[in-house]
TrEMBL record:
Any one GO biological process: proteolysis
Membrane in keyword set: yes
Record protein name field: PDZ domain-containing protein
Gene3D superfamilies documented for this protein: 2.30.42.10, 3.30.230.10
Domain PDZ span(s) in chain numbering: 106-192
Keywords: Membrane, Transmembrane, Transmembrane helix
Positions of transmembrane segments: 9-27
Organism: Halanaerobium saccharolyticum
GO molecular function, one term: ATP-dependent peptidase activity
Length: 336
């Protein structure tokens, strides 16, 4: 009789545990799970009209982000797996910004990254490219940033540290390449008057690890004249961090020799109109994605190199500051 009761008790206990396990996979918590995303070949995504076909491949890498459920919270908190981490949703979003607004901003920066990549690639291939833009318009000033009580909504940023700003991505890339605590000179046009402000870069909530002055911006009056046609099919990938490999894929289709030498080359890094390659977030997960895809070389911005080297193991890393660093390195390999 006792054995029968024990069996019934254990059966119910197992059933309850199973139900709780199932439910834990559906209850959302206010966190995101960050983990390795895709390492995807770019040749199916990018086509230069009348461009050359190549044997090797450039690949973009991405971080996967999804809404966490209760099971994720318990599992990651208890076991701290190397390939996953939790980040609070409130910490991911800039102040006063909803998730849909953030996604729209990242999508806009992705489109600008594509334009910049085209301009840089065509110029490197010897073509004349005309780019014009009025600057980066401030759409919101955050209270906890150094821009508060200095810059205003509607100000047009035309230069950062004396470097011309033609689009939002220019300003983002320049500031992102500074250290937290550096002072940057921001030149703006306000009601027809040019003003300059020296602002300290800060680490803001929701943008940890990145220098910021605390403004949200968008491009104004952007116009490109590129002597060729490039078609992108990047689907749901957003953000500016694939700019460097976009440039290299386009460049490789514009020149007769395959600069990859037949290799699979992954990478990450923003791109500016002058070819500078800027730091990105989540480099360790991008390295993991690249290793899973079996790439031969990984291109990494200099500011991300130290962290990348901790996870690269036997994956060869190429530390770069500018698009010319990549081209010169790969051309030298071809000569050997």
């Amino acid at each position: 009789m006792r054995n029968k009761r024990l069996k019934k008790f254990y059966s119910r206990l197992i059933g309850i545990i199973f139900i709780l396990f199932v439910i834990s996979h559906f209850i959302p918590v206010p966190y995101q799970v960050m983990e390795p995303g895709i390492a995807a070949e770019l040749s199916p995504m990018i086509e230069v009209k009348d461009g050359y076909e190549n044997q090797g491949e450039f690949l973009l890498t991405a971080v996967s982000s999804r809404r966490a459920v209760a099971w994720d919270y318990f599992y990651i908190s208890l076991f701290a797996p190397e390939d996953k981490e939790l980040t609070a949703i409130s910490e991911q979003l800039p102040e006063n910004m909803e998730m849909n607004e953030y996604i729209e901003l990242m999508a806009e920066l992705m489109e600008e990254s594509k334009l910049q990549a085209q301009a840089v690639a065509f110029r490197q291939a010897g073509y004349q490219v005309e780019v014009s833009g009025e600057g980066a318009e401030i759409v919101e000033v955050m209270e906890n940033g150094s821009a508060y009580n200095n810059l205003k909504k509607g100000d047009l940023i035309t230069a950062v540290d004396g470097k011309k700003v033609e689009m939002a991505a220019d300003a983002v890339n320049i500031i992102k390449n500074r250290n937290i605590g550096d002072v940057v000179e921001i030149t703006v046009i306000r009601e027809g008057e040019e003003l300059k402000f020296d602002l300290e870069t800060l680490e803001l909530e929701g943008n940890e690890g990145n220098p910021s002055i605390g403004v949200l911006i968008s491009s104004k009056g952007l116009d490109y004249k590129i002597p060729g046609e490039v078609n992108f099919e990047t689907e749901n990938i957003i953000g500016p961090s694939a700019g460097s490999v976009f440039s290299m894929e386009i460049y490789n289709q514009l020149i007769p020799d395959d600069i990859t030498g037949g290799r699979r080359i992954a990478g990450t890094g923003t791109i500016s109109l002058d070819g500078e390659i800027g730091r990105i977030d989540g480099v360790k997960y991008k390295i993991m994605a690249a290793k899973e895809a079996g790439v031969d070389l990984f291109i990494v911005p200099e500011d991300n190199y130290q962290e990348a080297s901790e996870y690269a193991a036997d994956l060869e890393l190429l530390k770069v500051n500018n698009i010319t660093d990549i081209i010169e390195y790969l051309e030298k390999d071809l000569e050997l």
